[in-house]
Amino acid sequence: MSLKHFLMHGRHIPFLLGIQMAFIILFGVFVEYDKEADSGKAINANATTNEGNTIGHYYPMFQDVHVMMFIGFGFLMTFLKKYGYSAVAVNFLIAAIVLQWATLCQGFYHTFDGRRIHITITSLLNADFASATVLISFGAVIGVTTPLQLAVMAVCEIAIFASNEHLGLEILRISDVGASMLVHVFGAYFGLAVSCVLRRDVSSEKEGATYNSDIFAMIGTIFLWLFWPSFNAGLAEGDAQHRAVINTYYSLAACCVTAFAISALVSKEHKFDMVHIQNSTLAGGVAIGTAADMMIHPFGAMIVGSIAGTVSVLGYRYLTPVVNRRLGIHDTCGVHNLHGMPGMIAGIVGAITAAAATQEEYGYSLYRQFSARAPLAGTPEFKALHHHIEHLEPGLGRSASMQGGYQIATLFITLAIAISGGLVTGLILRLPIFGKVHQDHLFDDEMCWEVPEADHPQLEQIPSHNASPSPMVLHQF
């Protein structure tokens, strides 16, 4: 192998080895087990069961979310007829990088004691949520970026994401249990901003689906649909977790039925469009995310899911072709329709529900649900509540309307940070050192993979009902 060939096709090798070595060093210097996982702590001296340890509470939800990241998101992108290896395996690679990097970035904000980052099962769950952010952005640029560009994008994005997450949860004190604003909105518009900067002619007959590739993509859809209640409820506790599962369950069900109906409605022959079914059926999980643990009631969750399914399908059918044609923003998987717009709906629904929350409806759990609404420390109101609520932490004394205002403000702050961060990251990715995909290799595994010739034939493209006049077949991620 010549040096020129290595510089052309092997740039990702030293980056991957270097960043993994850096992670090992940083973990060695800064990371240690939290007391629940540390055998040397006195509380674990006689522990023979998980009683009193959070692993038993969080691990089932964590495992569901883990499956979503590696099987759900990965297989959802296998619709591209000649990009199946990369859809699943590069998703695998990028998520593995992000899990480690997010542990560090989020740890410095949440569990750093001035010397060490303490990790628990919730650290792993939060890292999975962070990986979802990058995988959503991945959907906007899949097939038109190199593995090195994607890895660099992931590193930049997580650093910005962790800062925005800290701003929303710790400083502005908002409630976003399903991370629809902090993950879905951020990931979608960050990815679209990167795509905007990387703007190029990406017209290719390879950007299409086949009958078999669409079936594989449906595997991802079903896994995501089944486990989405765990995603939205993973970090909730008690009655809030119970509500989050119920609300997400019914929102997804209503979204699924509505998406099927609207898909057939907007089709010229009133047939179902697989693009819509693979993706718009999931929009209800995103749209209910922020308010999933709030008292929105099952019928309210169903309304939200129905709206999300409708908006997502209509976005596919009418909006995405216009955005691609007039703004020149290529969106391979159409992340705007599944994560962007439904995430905006979630932020608005969450703000309205928070502004309507009362102690009569929530009881004393109102102050766990919206921690900033608890009275200020030392006030008579705080002392009175402290008798009823164990381990109550002082709040900021916000009213319901103020909490709703902070919720909506966080939505637009997240949107601004995501777009600006994506634009800067896109400029970084355009540097020649990171290379770019040759026109002939767009949406093609052969650029990075050893592909058996017999398994990589020229396949006939299935036209999409919502495709723009260009040869693109737009899929939702």
From TrEMBL:
Name the keywords, alphabetized: Membrane, Transmembrane, Transmembrane helix
Which InterPro entries does this UniProt record tie to the protein? Ammonium/urea_transptr (IPR029020), NH4_transpt_AmtB-like_dom (IPR024041), RhesusRHD (IPR002229)
The record's subcellular locations are: Membrane
State what protein this is by name.
Ammonium transporter AmtB-like domain-containing protein
- UniProt record, GO biological process: ammonium homeostasis; ammonium transmembrane transport
Superkingdom, taxonomy of origin: Eukaryota
Q: What's this protein's family per the entry?
A: Belongs to the ammonium transporter (TC 2.A.49) family. Rh subfamily.
In this chain the Ammonium transporter AmtB-like domain maps to: 23-433
* A molecular function GO annotation: ammonium channel activity
The answer to whether keyword Transmembrane helix applies is yes
What residues form the membrane-spanning segments?
Answer: 12-31, 61-80, 87-109, 129-162, 174-195, 215-236, 248-266, 299-319, 340-358, 406-429
User: What kind of membrane protein is this, topologically?
Assistant: Multi-pass membrane protein
| GO CC term (a single one) | plasma membrane
